[in-house]
Design a protein that fits this description.
Helix content: 40-55%
Low-confidence stretches: none
Number of helices: 10
Shape: globular
Number of strands: 4
Mean pLDDT: 88
Length: about 250
Amino acid sequence: MIYIVLGMHKSGTTLVARTLHESGIPMGEGFPVGASYRDMKYEAGWAQDINDTILGVDRKEFSLRVRSSGLAGTGINDELAGKMQEGVAGYSAKFDDWGFKDPRTALTYRFWRGNLPAHKVIVVCRDPLAVWRRYSRFISWRKIRSPFLAWHDYNRAILDVVSGLPDDEVLFLGFEQLLSGRDEWARLDRFTGKRLANVCDPKQSVNRFSETGFAALQYRMLKALAGRTVLDTYNQFVQLRMDQIARERSEKSD
């Protein structure tokens, strides 16, 4: 089976990709064993090359500048489709189970989908306020909303394509839940049919807001800055995930 990991930058895609890779589902080749998040993103170069071409930007471009507005039309040319199919065929010849991730695939998955054989999608989403905090030190006040705009662009593109897929083809994961307990990992175990390795760093923070009065004020201010459209998209993801969990529990009890 092929597994495609989708999610915004700084939302847990590397954590999921590393977990799959170290559990016998290669996400690329040549990755050093046990590499840290800082040193390795578990992104296959051949898939990155294709995304570079589709998006018209180099993979080193600052992530907040890579947006869906740069995509032209609704399809790709035969040459690029051929590269996709060649890469897929090469990995499928070597591995029964494999996958790839590149956060930018959130924007390009609609082009990939028609050139992939049967596959499964793993969507990981993180609270947009937490993502904003991860980017806050890299942006000026003039672009203070840019992390929210990018978050919405990526996650809206994902939901527009995968929200109607059946549960056996797509899994919705919450980043905060991956770091706070085993239940979310058990869902990923069941989805892949494997007992996956635990690669969580106990020092990794979920970047939650504390319970102090100042933090509560900060949270309200960021919610206002994010805007209703961003929060509505996040709430849609949360609802899709909760609905999926409810169906999983119902099936388990039957």
